[in-house]
Specification:
Elements (H helix, E strand, L loop, with lengths): L1 E5 L5 H13 L6 E3 L5 H8 L20 E5 L12 E5 L1 H18 L6 E6 L8 H4 L1 H4 L7 E4 L4 E4 L24 H8 L4
Parallel strand pairs: 1-5
Antiparallel strand pairs: 2-5, 3-4, 6-7
Length: 191
């Protein structure tokens, strides 16, 4: 299986968004599937195409962070409706696009091909929701999503819920609660 080592060093807000979605939004993302053929459809379904970070009537963006980032990525089958959104700077958006673009050039994923995303060791140490989501799954007022039923953008609420095994039982953690396996997967502790 392909692996994508995601370096958070200069991508703090995109990594915060990925960790929020994975750990706090109860969206058990461990494996993604490349689907760049439908990226535009996924962007539309996520609400990014409505430019929420440039809308002065919404509280999420500002003069610097005026570009909407979605996770899962629009270029994956998991992207689109239900994606977590966060406003980031255009500079960070370009860096993130470069990181993904470089990975695609190197790995040449086929449409539908599965890949594992994990954060580069020590690149996320100053992002509390990535380091210890059990203590840091609170919305800083910048995590939002598009509600298709209402047609509105809404703040996301944390749903840190134990990850389940295939048989339906909880995956235990040190304190008996939470997505430790998902945390380990994303943070690369098995490497």
């Amino acid at each position: 299986m392909l692996e994508f080592e995601y370096d958070c060093t200069n991508l703090k807000n995109t990594c915060k968004n990925a960790c929020w979605h994975t750990f706090c939004g109860n969206n058990d993302i461990g494996i993604l599937h490349w689907d760049s053929d439908h990226a535009d459809e996924h962007r539309k379904a996520s609400g990014v195409d409505q430019r929420p970070c440039k809308n002065k009537d919404l509280p999420y963006g500002d003069d610097i962070n005026d570009s909407a980032e979605e996770f899962p990525f629009a270029s994956t089958a998991e992207g689109g409706e239900g994606a977590s959104l966060r406003c980031i700077s255009k500079k960070e958006q370009r860096r993130q696009g470069g990181l993904v673009g470089d990975w695609v050039k190197k790995n040449k994923p086929a449409q539908g091909q599965a890949f594992k995303l994990f954060l580069k060791k020590d690149s996320y140490n100053d992002i509390p929701v990535c380091v210890d989501p059990k203590k840091n799954c609170f919305n800083d007022g910048k995590q939002f999503t598009f509600n298709h039923n209402t047609g509105q953008f809404e703040l996301q609420s944390a749903k840190f819920i134990p990850r389940k095994r295939d048989d339906g039982s909880d995956i235990p953690t040190e304190d008996g609660v939470g997505n430790q396996e998902a945390l380990d997967d994303l943070l690369g502790k098995h490497r």
